[in-house]
Amino acid sequence: MLRSLHLVFQRRTAVALALDVTLHFRFKGAEDVDATVVIRDGELTVEDGHVGEPSLRVRADAATWLGFVRKEKSLVWALLRRKIRLTGSPKHLVAFGKCFP
Q1: Which terminus of the chain faces fewer neighbouring Cβ atoms within 10 Å, N or C?
Q2: 68 and 82 in contact (C-beta within 8 Å)?
Q3: Element (H or E) spanning 91, and its range?
Q4: Looking at the predicted structure, is the pLDDT value of residue 58 above 90?
């Protein structure tokens, strides 16, 4: 999923929002993955591992996250069940989500 983000990234939306955000993702599941996603000046960068200081940290069960992305699972329910955990302001996740259809 992380490798394909650039295919659906909405640059105009990121520019319109003046988005400058760094997100650290940690996915747990069959394969554990750490990644950094940066949106700055309308550009998207995805790197392996955690790089820099994040605006938001997202720790998630990989299957739950994919269900949320596919709109099959509720983010609120996943947060309540602690399948997805956020450290930092959730507004960054909302703004991030607006950049992807």
Answers
A1: C
A2: no
A3: helix 91-98
A4: yes
